[in-house]
Write a structure and sequence with these properties.
9 helices, single chain, binds BIS(adenosine)-5'-tetraphosphate, five-stranded parallel sheet, 5 strands
């Protein structure tokens, strides 16, 4: 990854769009490491809520385990809370928005917090490869004696993909219409994809 680390000359804000297992979380972590951006992952926030045993966590756990999307008001509230409680600049919105209503809400929040969206980056991957990636992640976690994500199994992935195509894929045209869409082939090696993303944010 040498040569990809760069201090940005100005604040950059990007959305990572893509199906489950496309590499949103993987690439967001590399953008944090290489460019000092702040990752806002609604998936991580929801898993934290679940692990904390809070009332919210209990409500969302079953929805996630079914591979469905959590309601818009919950995830919009989580993102708003994070933006309200940070002085950080330069965000990666990872897994948010996932519906047109969330995209509209994010647009309003960005205006409210005076944040400019630079790009919505689509990670393009064939559905076929996603099953392998998710099952691989489950196997790795198991081998390391770590908990396996409750939604990392083939049956739930089918539901997650259905939700993606029905509710999230329309965001590609939405951001294309706003002139901020960038598409990246995310079928290759993690490092090669990271290089392309670094070039976009730089
Ligand atoms: P998320 O946590 O966002 O999970 P995801 O989309 O399934 O995974 P992600 O895309 O980040 O995985 P990654 O590629 O990094 O959401 C989980 C659930 O939370 C949702 O199903 C939903 O219920 C709920 N939720 C979250 N946000 C929501 C919202 N806004 N609205 C409503 N509900 C919401 O990793 C996959 C694996 O692939 C890893 O093992 C990685 O190492 C591997 N991998 C990545 N890139 C690779 C590559 N190029 N080659 C080989 N392997 C690769």
């Amino acid at each position: 990854m040498q040569g990809d680390t760069a201090t940005l000359t100005r604040t950059v804000n990007v959305i990572l769009l893509g199906p489950p297992g496309a590499g949103k979380g993987t690439q967001a972590e590399l953008l944090v490491k290489n460019h000092g951006l702040v990752q806002l992952s609604t998936g991580d926030m929801l898993r934290e809520a679940k692990a904390s045993g809070s009332e919210l966590g209990q409500r969302v756990a079953q929805v996630m385990e079914r591979g469905e999307l959590v309601t818009d008001d919950i995830v919009i509230g989580l993102i708003k809370e994070k933006l309200s409680n940070t002085d950080a600049k330069g965000f990666i919105f990872d897994g948010f928005p996932r519906t047109l209503a969330q995209a509209d809400a994010l647009g309003q929040l960005l205006e409210e917090f005076d944040i400019k969206l630079d790009a919505a980056i689509e990670l393009k991957v064939d559905d076929k490869i996603l099953v392998q990636r998710i099952l691989h992640r489950a196997a790795q976690a198991k081998a390391a004696g770590q908990p396996v994500r409750a939604d990392d199994n083939e049956e739930t992935l089918v539901q997650r993909l259905e939700a993606y195509h029905a509710q999230t894929a329309p965001l590609i045209a939405y951001y294309e219409g706003k002139g901020v869409l960038k598409s990246v082939d995310a079928m290759g090696a993690i490092d090669a994809i990271a290089k392309e993303l670094s070039a976009i944010v730089s």
